[in-house]
Design brief:
The protein is α+β, with helices and mostly antiparallel strands. The chain is about 20% helix and about 30% strand. It has one helix and three strands. Strands 1-3-2 form a three-stranded antiparallel sheet, with helices on one face. The longest helix is centred in the middle third of the chain and has 13 residues. The chain is globular. It starts with a strand and ends with a strand.
């Protein structure tokens, strides 16, 4: 198994925040969905922090294992 670190920048205007939630689109869910499609398997990412709804981020660190 390999662990990858990613550095993320995003405009959070249209998102419910970082953490996956059932009440709307989150940054975490969107990245997991995209990585899962690219890597052809379920991917779970772990962020170094969280943002609230509508908050932007630059240089946020996260990791995932494959």
């Amino acid at each position: 198994m390999y662990r990858y670190q990613i550095i993320i920048e995003y405009d959070g205007t249209n998102y419910v925040g970082w953490q996956s939630q059932i009440n709307g689109k989150s940054i975490q869910s969107e990245i997991e969905k995209t990585l899962s499609k690219i890597l052809k398997g379920k991917v779970r990412i772990y962020g170094s922090g969280r943002t609230d709804a509508g908050v932007h981020s630059s240089n946020q660190s996260a990791h995932f294992d494959v």
